[in-house]
Specification:
Helices cover 16% and strands 28% of the residues. Helix 3 crosses helix 6. The N and C termini lie far apart (48 Å).
Length: 471
Amino acid sequence: MGAMRLFLLICVFLASVSSVRKLNDIDDLRNTGYGKPPPRHGLQLLYWFTQNVNVEQNNNRIYLNFIPEDHGFHLFENREFILPPLCCGQSYYEVGNLNYPGANALPAYVSRQYRNTNLPEKNMDRLMISLDENSSPISRVFITAHNRNRNDFNISDTYEIDPALILQIRETSCNDYGTSGTTNYEDEDDKTEENGCLEFLSKTEYSSTYCKKTDNHRENRSPYSQCNEGIRLNIKTTTQGNSKLIWENIPADLMKKHVYIDICQNTYSSDTNEVHTQVRKRLNIYESSGTLDTSVSLNAGLQPRLALDPSYLTDFLNKYIWYGPEFDGANGVIPIRIKGIDSKLQLYAADGKACARLYIKKTFSNWYNVLYYSWIGFYKSSQDKNDAYSTYQYAVEFARIDDTTIKDYDIYQYYSSLAIAPGVQIRFLLDKGYNKVLAQTTPWESDEKSICDKGNPTHSPSVLSKFIYEP
């Protein structure tokens, strides 16, 4: 009797903490006040999501038409119970952290304010979906947000999105909205989608002035934080494992004001703000677009920032005009499954070298014996034969990471002597021979897909996992 009462109390508790209001139409959404005011981005994120899914109207099933990990989706464990409990075999995934690997693939209208302000509200909104392990249709969709200046979620700002609302947002017209002459679109579809987002924002009573300035926060902003959304800053790798800086479309009026680019080293970036420990390199630039090989070794957390000469700052404290995406140590590629083994493999960069991580499931208790002769080869090119490795290491010689947020896996890693460079690849071989390749990673800075034995693609929601910074 006591056990039954305890069970009922637990059920009541879970029901109370995960009771989420469902939004059925745009009026419901507008009345919540979710995602407002600027610089919040939750409404833009929701609009992007609705444009990239398909909905079966007969049974309300929702299907993704994109690869989740390519847009910053990652596992959400629901530790605060803000979402309803899941059935067996289902998991929640979240997107919207604009400082997260893959999020730079989101369109400019989602991240524009994130690049142009330092206010903590710029990165507080999230979108969650529930997925089955076998990649079945999405079961449910939710939107939520962090509490201001904190990393926990706000249950009162959490809502379920009805499929009918997704269809209503998809039907948003863009006939009445033009575009800014400064916007650079890769194709007409980008232009149409951004126009539609503007109208959607108008219907939800979100300010359509992307670059509206607030006097109360004047001291935190640059006087040149206008919508220069054509600017591009990025970090790639040289053949020696150093950072290659790429910049594009810096307006002529800014070039006249002696701008330069800092390569900053960020550490443990939080959900709501950015902290860098040091400026690794200040680089003067003299052209609006260009590339430059630097001496800064490639590491997770590097970020290029466009800065204004201090003599032009007057009473403004923030010298940075534009932020490029943080460099993801794994180059935006999630760990891939090793065929037939409860483990995953990942290539990443550290101090300019090619490194490997093994994610070994904690239930794989006898892995040491099973993988005793297994080894990971490091190759300069995906075209190299299996016996033409540059260096290698046995799996059992990898060092274990003691502090990790991946609850189901123990993580082991190895730092090689091979410089990280375009085309570098690692492969997992089962034994001392060269024929049993159970996994091989995507070549570094390549558009190819990861391979899990004999060319079977491994990109699916079931292999999503959290990215971790260096311990």
